Amino acid sequence: MHVIIVGCGRVGSQLATILSGEGHDVVIVDKNPKSFKRLGSAFNGITITGIGFDADILKRAGVERADALAAVTNGDNSNIMIGQIARRMYNVPKVIARIYDPERAHIYKKFGLDTICMTTIGANLIKGKLLKGGK
Amino acid sequence: MYILIVGGGKVGEALAKNLSKRGHDIAVMEKEEDIARKLAEDLDEALVVSGDGCDPLKLEEAKIERAKVVVAVTGDDEDNLIVCQLAKDSYNVQRVIARVNNPKNEDTFKFLGIDTVSSTQIISKLIEEESTPGDIVTLLSLKKGKISIVEIKVDSDSPAANKQIRELSLPKESLIISIVKGEEVYFPRGDSVVQEGTSLIALTAVDAEKDLRSVFKKRKEK
Question: Mind telling me how many Å the CA of A91 is from chain B's nearest CA?
Fold first, then answer.
């Protein structure tokens, strides 16, 4: 699969390394080239320095033929914008946008963007662990 | 009319002042607390809300459901897009306008159905015109810079000098709306002659301006 990952933070770099290790064609985009240092030695994909919602950068990353895209920059709004460009302008079959704000995640899910809200997921996981095996 | 402005920078502040002078009911949202505090001191008429305009809860605090117009003028295009989408799709605000800082993003906004004003594009165009005098001068820019009313001086070496208007191959999207000779203004017909030394006022699509120029101006020697 041709996968584009926008944002090479902790999540993005790990995701890129795993996918690339599994044999997928991975292109990772980040505005800060230093962030690519996070990529493990197993990563054999392509890195592109640039703003993820710049349509030119996405085109360079091969958005027109991508099978999937994950928007995992540290900005909710950037991720929403990238997600919409990929989904609506370039019809990428599978697009996920990571959003911290539960409210925005909920709204954009309603509008048809596949969103993942780490805040809600994290809170629920922690809650589950806290309550499990209690007195 | 209640207008909500998101972004309390120079553009947002100036806009708030101008619109409240015209009697509109204005609220400005600014996420930097210090800037918001300063704004609240400077803007007597407007309501200042300290908070992120991309946060739906904050938008509700600013009474977005009452807003007839929402304008997003922060320095970040992604934020402006989200503010406008939330306003339009979540709160059914009828008129939303986004400032686009990077002209590259204009197409994206358009595709996603958000009206834009590109400050960068407008400023660079104005400066370009100011720095190339003697050419076509824009008198008025309309429809967000898509069409404009321009003034063209007809010199003696103009290829159009002393020809009838109907003889000129004007671009389809340009129209000569008057001929100015000294203090006198004429409303031209097809048989009106474009005399040298006169000025023409034309309405033109900005995209056709180049073709319009070539009708009246001798090609510059390189």
Answer: 13
